[in-house]
Amino acid sequence: MKAIDEKQGKRMVEQKWKGGGADLTPFHLIGIPGLYFVSKNSYAQLHLPSDKPETLNQSTYKDLVQLVYLSVLEFAK
């Protein structure tokens, strides 16, 4: 994924995740590794009543979706 991100948006932040609140948490707790795609500080309306599709940071969202798509495609190969 690092190589894919280098060619795409260079948005990846390498950070260890310790679980908590995400859909991946139950798997993490029983030792199943996984990938967690999330945007950090990408827009001010996150989880607020004003959080609507039009308030998304379109550039960040596009890069994130593209990274997920290309990563899944690479794993499938």
What features would you describe in this structure?
With 77 residues, the chain is mainly alpha-helical. The protein has helices at residues 2-7, 25-29, 58-76. It is globular and about 35 Å long. The protein starts with a helix and ends with a helix. The model has no long low-confidence stretch (mean pLDDT 81).
Beta-strand content = under 5%
Our Rg estimate from Cα atoms comes to: 14 Å
- Helical stretch count? 3
Q: How many strand segments?
A: 0
Fraction of residues in H or I helices: 25-40%
Structural class: mainly alpha
Secondary structure layout plus pairing:
Blueprint: H1 2-7, H2 25-29, H3 58-76
TL;DR of this structure?
With about 80 residues, the protein is mainly α.
Q: What features would you highlight for this structure?
A:
single chain; 77 residues; mainly alpha; 3 helices; 39% helix; globular
